[in-house]
Amino acid sequence: xxxxxxxxxxxxxxxxxxxxxxxxxxxxxxxxxxxxxxxxxxxxxxxxxxxxxxxxxxxxxxxxxxxxxxxxxxxxxxxxxxxxxxxxxxxxxxxxxxxxxxxxxxxxxxxxxxxxxxxxxxxxxxxxxxxxxxxxxxxxxxxxxxxxxxxxxxxxxxxxxxxxxxxxxxxxxxxxxxxxxxxxxxxxxxxxxxxxxxxxxxxxxxxxxxxxxxxxxxxxxxxxxxxxxxxxxxxxxxxxxxxxxxxxxxxxxxxxxxxxxxxxxxxxxxxxxxxxxxxxxxxxxx
Length: 286
Prior knowledge:
It comes from Saccharopolyspora hirsuta. By secondary structure, the chain is α+β, with helices and mostly antiparallel strands. The protein has helices spanning 3-22, 46-59, 142-158, 160-164, 195-201, 205-216; strands at residues 61-70, 75-85, 88-98, 106-113, 116-120, 132-135, 171-181, 184-194, 221-229, 234-243, 247-256, 272-273.
């Protein structure tokens, strides 16, 4: 594959990944005239979420399966682990995407360690002998500029702690009911993050900016579903939404073996590369 075609491929792979993980927290805008003038009658989720976040931190790790639809991109199937180290979350997933156009499935692997991402897919090989693409927030290379905004979204797609930390009081319980996950009793919570309130409550600058942009663009609320087992730990976590040019995107993470050892390693240095520049026909990300 030529250098230009290779770089074009990483754009396609990157846009697919961004569509997968950014669309999962969006829902259609709520018209301004539909917002009630009275106080929100829905319960605040801070007590429930504070307990969940505390339990996640205490257990320190979990194994997870991620399944779902990436709209026109196809179906995603992946398995992996999540490891918590204080405020830091590391993860590693391995799986495949299957296009709806009868194309063969494509293998994909993703690791995030200390906030740096490592992506492996045939569509984004930095060099023949370097199967892993490094994605470093704040770096100047093209791959990082394209994909680093998606790293936080990946965390939020698979990790309830990353999603709700700092905005517990800006989250409302739309409804809750008994349910089952893999035959085990759970309680399902339909949760809504109120973006205007979250933008004011968040202390992390990037998180605050993300909610502010959502609120200003008309996304009054972001929708999530969280299933808690009898011990109060997440059994399942789901999000879905309509994504421009991708269609309906839905991802669900199912958890098991909370507290079991979870190894998350950085790929060998000699197998990691970057894309320094965009191909001439592509616009450099801003």
